[in-house]
Amino acid sequence: TLPAGYVELGESVAMGAARETMEEVNASIEDIKPYFHLDIPQIGQAYVIFHAQLAPPYTFSSGPETQETALFAL
Q: Measuring CA to CA, which residue among 61, 33, 63 is closest to residue 49?
């Protein structure tokens, strides 16, 4: 799965994606752009998938919520 979570009060969806990425895979990202949007009204949820670049120091690792991490091409 991709890093995911809820948007906090006062943050944009892109800011939430960056925060969740840091929390789940200890990675900073930049050049964050929307990639895919999915609405699921039956359960009251919307998903926004972003495409981003790994930012300096270009590292990532499993956080307390994650068992394994990897990079992949789209």
A: 33
pLDDT of amino acid 73? 81
Instruction: Tell me the residue type at 69.
Output: T
Task: Find, among 54, 53, 56, 63, the residue nearest to 25 by Cα.
Answer: 63
Structural contact between residues 62 and 23, judged by C-beta atoms closer than 8 angstroms? no
Phi and psi based region of residue 26 (left: phi greater than 0; alpha: psi -120 to 50; beta: remaining): left
How far from each other are the two terminal CA atoms of the chain, in whole angstroms?
Answer: 14
Is the separation of the CB atoms in 62 and 70 below 8 Å?
A: no
- Please write the tens of the pLDDT for every residue from 23-44: 999 999 999 999 999 999 999 9
Gyration radius of the chain's alpha carbons: 13
CA distance 65 to 59: 17
pTM of the model: 0.86
